[in-house]
Each structure stands twice: as C-alpha cells, then as structure tokens.
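User: Predict the structure for this protein chain, please.
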Amino acid sequence: MSVPSAAPVPRHRRSLRERLVSREPARSILSVWSWFTFGVLVVVWLPLMAIVWLVTAPFDKGRYWTGYLFRKLPVVHRHINPFWKFRVSGTLPENPRRPYIVVSNHESFVDILLISHLPFEMKWLSKVEMFKIPVVGWLMSLANDIRLSRGEISSAADAMKQCADRLSKKVSVLIFAEGTRSTTGELGKFKNGAFRLAIETGCPILPVAVHGCHTALRPKDWRMAYSTAEVRVLEPIEVEGLTTRDMYALRDKTRNRIAAEIEVLRSELAS
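Assistant: Here is the predicted structure, written as structure tokens:
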C-alpha cells in the first residue's frame, strides 16, 4: 500500500520558519547545526547514562530507567532542531511496566527519534552495525538494546531470546516488522518474528503507526527537511489462547491496522 507524503502546503500558508529552513543555503547550514548539536547531546548523555546505570543496577535488572533516559535525548534535541515537528497521539498504555511487543512501520531513521517521544521505555531490536557507531553504540549497550545481524539465523534466534528476556523483566520491546526502513515510503511486508514472539511469550502486540518521517530525512540526503511527523499508538492486540498456527493471521491483522492508520495520519497531516 502506498504511503505518500502529506500534500504540499500552498506557499502563502507556510509558516515563516518553514519558508526559512526550506531555502538554500539555509537548509544546509541549519542541517549542519542540527547534526552538530545532536552529536554534542550524544557525548553529554554518555556520563549521565553511566551514572544512572550504576545507581539503578542493584534493583533495575531490565535497565528500564537507563533506557528511559536514553530516549529523552531526541526529546531534548527536538527543541533545538528547527526542521521537525513531532506529535504523539493514540491510546497510551496505562501501566508502562506491562510488557508489550511494540510493532511499528519504518519510514526513515527519523522514526527512531519520533518514537522515542512515547512516554514509556522499550528496548529496541536494532541491526548490529548501529552498535558499532562510536558513543552511540555505547549508549545503546548501556540501555540494553538488542543486537541483530541480518541474514544470520543464529543471530535472529538469539535476538528473539534477548527480546523474551527483556519482556520477562517487565520491559517492552520494539520491532520494526518490515525488517528495514522503506526507501520509497511504501509499507512493506511484515516478517514473522515479532508475532511468533508474542504467541510464545503471551505478551500482547502494541501496534504503532508513524507518518511524516520519510520527508523529514530523505534517503541519500544528509540534509534535513521541514516536516511534521506523528506517532500514533493503537489498541493492543491480545494473544491469549493463540498458537503458532495463528501467527500469520496475527501478522496480517497487525499490518492491516497499521496500514489503515497510516492513511488516517496522511489525511490529518495533509489538512
């Protein structure tokens, strides 16, 4: 299903900020500024997270609070970044320590920054290359995020075990069910891992739809672009009584809900 970007706003209706950051060379200069400040925050966050990890280690085996602090980095950066407007909506979990398997579509790297605005902690299933980035990878390790080597069956099996471990410690996990971010904005096929995990652990699926991130940072362009993006949390899907024979139906049900909500977000953001 196609997920087009929001319709362009007529020039006379655009805000002063949008007109400013859309001009060249202002867009390049402000992008350098935004990436620089993001890097500074990453460096500042390292000792802060290390302190929280040390203080909470005796009683926080799931590293909930260390990860919670990590997700606040993009929240702080949003106030510095002149390009992006982020919104959070939907039905948020009443108990942040009830573990869910959060399943989201994946439009762009910016999805990570947007979803981090949700007010509860979850551990992210991420490709192993992300952990090799200096400082960023250290922060992810401190937060107890989960490594995945693509194309390796043993790595996938170990990653699912790690996800089950986090869930057993009452911490949600987030999985991009498409397996990789879209380069076109189209919603791809969902892989089975998240849904098998849900059935095996008994943890409900929490569908999440994101829209607007694809235009915020286009593929192969380091420069940011003015964009309003929104993450919407949908009603949980319970898995009690399901078996692995129900895995494909659960997968399709989740994808259909997210696909339908993306269309709603597209219409709302366009207007």
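The chain has one domain: 13-270.
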